[in-house]
TrEMBL record, chains A, B:
Catalyzed chemical reaction(s): (R)-malate + NAD(+) = pyruvate + CO2 + NADH
Pfam families reported in the protein's UniProt record: Iso_dh
Originating species: Franzmannia qiaohouensis
Protein family membership: Belongs to the isocitrate and isopropylmalate dehydrogenases family.
Record-given protein name: D-malate dehydrogenase (decarboxylating)
Length: 355, 355
């Protein structure tokens, strides 16, 4: 059985880490006898926008919908195209149109990586952020009035549906079931955001009734970010709205040393549409073109993709290879962000060889 | 000239730290010959709600509006009253009705306090969060539809006005002017929140034109929280919307060791209405009644109040006393959260004596 993978590198360091992601995937495919058919697409980048006046061709949905997965780099280059145009024109389209309503992001302190938190060792930080990925604060409803005057006002609606909340909660509770600690933390802000967030809390309570073996707690997002820093060991599975999940899944990886290595999966659990796998980091215009971007986020995203496609063993091997190369501390191989003098390519090659 | 201060202790540890805040204020008033007339109010607590069915009497505005300042503990006790009712019925009313549109929160690593961030020393972290305090994501517009069905949907409007944004930006830029580094960081999320946040960015750019000597940058809130952990030394004055400011002003103090000691000022800069001074921490039902709450957040808020009332010298003396007692490391005096075996009272007395 062949898995058809659409590859979209996007902008900036996206174009640099994608080749290393593919190198590692090929190594894993070879070792575990997996048949991957990767097809590269040029659209979904700011350069494409500058040429075509849009981020994606009109028939992107048709072109991509029958792939088994999307392997995605990073998009955005504010000097070329404003972020809200490039992102809403690409990544956020995929998430919404392909109903990738789960954004799953592991936060794990890896061997060889120094946490910015004092005294934390690998094993101390190991949790998942499960983020709602299609609705909530990322809304397309709203507008501006009294433009150009002192009365100018902008309004944007946060929209949450029972369907949207319940399905992400179900996924998070199910995930918590598979974990030894069986713990779920809900991110809320029902003391300040007085309409949507109390509703979110209600749905968490309702869902919890069906999972009596899960220990459930909740924190307001302000103190929750504080607790990520003060008590990262408290967390097992953390579930949040689109915005809160976004924040927590950058902060969590930062607590594990570098967001350069964090992966993510945008999942349509029913498999009706392709899921999308991408590093948490962005296109990083500041270091683009230098060949020093850390490719681990991309490679690890590839591992999540193989897991999603049913190849758990291959995914484990990829993760072990990442851990082994990080633990080696080999300065000539590691990229500068993790203390080495190596390049995107040297690190990518070392991991592919280990696989 | 007498300063009339309304004192509202609220719930939980609010009632425990307020007396120590007052003790320190009295000491400072005595030493610097300041005439403070403090009047205590029972309303604004969940117990008041249980008795009266509301958090505040109908004439609270009349009762409080002529005070020079409000000295406020903490409110909320979810087992008695849901948070969104207790908070919207009290603190959030004050902020909005008294047009306290600035929420100012220093994040400063103090001597004797261990930062959870590896290798950070006092002096490394020293910035202000300036938070918009009356509009934005904390909105009272929205509702629920299709209740009780699978189609159930909740909507809440984020509302931002040019007036509301510009005045908080102006305050933040003015504050940055007074600081040696003259640096301002704006919290945004214009890549995902595509209507309100690009507008916020626009207003920042417009305001920046009037302050050519200020170095301005912006980060999306997700990576900004990561940078608080990875590079807290980057920041000088950070300005954000109501929600983003809320998050950053818990996370910032967490990076400085304990949110138990962080103060805040809710300011109406024009002095048309009283400003409100309160610790960043909440009512902490889990440790309430044990007499171990750290009173420094309350005392430091008192210092901010004296500064606001024009008594800079007295405010400085209070802050120095806090620093001296913290630096002493006296286990018998310090509360457990900062490594001692003392009580709220022992720590409060020690600071008052130093003043
Ligand atoms: C209690 C809550 C409503 C409040 C807020 O979110 O503003 C608090 O977190 C704060 O920061 O003062
Ligand atoms: C680029 C941006 C729109 C995106 C988001 O906010 O979802 C990114 O931060 C992410 O987390 O994938």
């Amino acid at each position: 059985m062949t898995h058809r993978i659409a590859v979209i590198a996007g902008d900036g360091i996206g174009t640099e880490v994608i080749p290393e992601g593919l190198r590692a995937l090929e190594a894993a495919a070879k070792r575990f006898n997996i048949d991957l058919d990767c097809q590269t697409f040029e659209f979904g980048s700011c350069d494409y926008y500058l040429e075509h006046g849009k981020m994606l061709p009109d028939d992107w949905f048709e072109q991509l919908k029958d792939f088994d997965a999307l392997f995605y780099g990073a998009v955005g280059w504010p000097e070329k195209v404003p972020d809200h145009i490039s992102l809403w024109g690409s990544l956020l389209q995929f998430r919404r149109q392909f109903d990738q309503y789960i954004n799953l992001r592991p936060c794990k302190l890896m061997p060889g990586i120094k946490s910015p938190l004092a005294g934390r060792q690998p094993g101390d930080i190991d949790f998942y952020v499960v983020r709602e990925n299609t609705e909530g604060e990322y809304s397309s409803v709203g507008g501006k009035m009294f433009e150009g005057t002192d009365r100018e006002v902008v309004i944007q609606d946060t929209v949450m549906t029972r369907t949207g909340i319940d399905r992400v909660l179900k996924y998070a509770f199910d995930l918590a079931q598979t974990r030894p600690r069986k713990k779920l933390t809900s991110a809320t802000k029902s003391n300040g955001i007085s309409i949507t967030m109390p509703y979110w809390d209600e749905r968490v309570e309702a869902m919890a009734k069906g999972y009596p073996e899960i220990a459930v707690d909740k924190f307001h997002i302000d103190i929750l970010t504080a607790n990520f820093v003060l008590h990262p060991d408290w967390f097992d599975v953390v579930v949040g709205s689109n915005l809160f999940g976004d924040i927590l899944s950058d902060l969590g990886p930062a607590c594990t040393g570098t967001i350069g290595i964090a992966p993510s999966a945008n999942i349509n659990p029913e498999g009706k549409f392709p899921s999308l796998f991408e590093p948490v980091h962005g296109s990083a215009p500041d270091i683009a073109g230098k060949g020093i971007a850390n490719p681990i986020g991309q490679i690890w995203s590839g591992a999540m993709m193989l897991e999603h496609l049913g190849h758990q063993e291959a995914a484990d091997a990829m993760l072990k290879a990442i851990e082994a190369v990080l633990a080696s501390g080999d300065q000539g191989v590691l990229t500068p962000d993790v203390g080495g003098q190596g390049t995107t390519e040297s690190l990518g090659r070392a991991i592919a060889e280990k696989i």
